[in-house]
Amino acid sequence: MKYKCKYNSPLGKITMLSDGDYLTNLWIKGQPEVFGEFKEKEDLKIFNKAKKWLDEYFQGKEPKVEVPIKFEGTEFRKEVWNILLEIPYGKTTTYGEIAKKIAEKKQIKTMSAQAIGGAVGHNPISIIVPCHRVLGTDGRLTGYAGGISLKVALLNIEKIQVE
């Protein structure tokens, strides 16, 4: 059984999904949604933790709450999403830097930054898994599932200056 919960953020309505123990999806209005049968259940412990995390985040603080998450996707995508979790609050990285990390881990010469971009673009747990902290070469803003303006707003919350 999957559960669904809504959260009103300063940037729009956020929808979260859980299997009851882990957060499996989180998207903000304007991002692609997951469809299916979900039971509305606002009071799950996992949703309460995620709401507390989001409260802290939208207050401009680095969240201290641990939110148990579970990725559902290919092994490659999970590998990329786990690297996203390593990006510190208030910092950014590039698709190329993530590609280098994956190449080193796999002990291969190179990894396509475009392949990384595809995996980042399918991140199922937006904001908490900080795909908004990934920039293009030379710090350029690149695509974001909710649009560039949402990406900029999230970066601004973390006091990350973008051009």
What features would you describe in this structure?
With 163 residues, this protein is of the alpha/beta class. It has 2 domains: 56 residues, Double Stranded RNA Binding Domain (2-Layer Sandwich); 83 residues, Arc Repressor Mutant, subunit A, CATH 1.10.10.10. It has 5 helices and 6 strands; from the N terminus they run E-E-E-E-H-H-E-H-H-E-H. The strands form 2 sheets. The protein has a 4-stranded mixed β-sheet, with helices on one face. Strand 2 and strand 3 form a beta hairpin. Helix 3 crosses helix 4. The model has no long low-confidence stretch (mean pLDDT 91).
Under CATH at level 1, the class of the largest domain stands as Mainly Alpha
Write down the overall geometry. globular
Sheet having the most strands? 4 strands, mixed
How many DSSP H or I helices?
Answer: 5
Keyphrases for this structure?
alpha/beta, 2 domains, two-stranded parallel sheet, 163 residues, Arc Repressor Mutant, subunit A, Double Stranded RNA Binding Domain
Q: What's the layout of helices and strands?
A:
Blueprint: E1 3-9, E2 12-18, E3 23-28, E4 39-40, H1 45-58, H2 75-84, E5 93-94, H3 95-106, H4 113-121, E6 134-135, H5 148-157
Helix pairs in contact: 3-4
Brief account:
The protein contains five helices and six strands; from the N terminus they run E-E-E-E-H-H-E-H-H-E-H. The radius of gyration is 16 Å and the shape is globular. The chain is 34% helix and 16% strand.
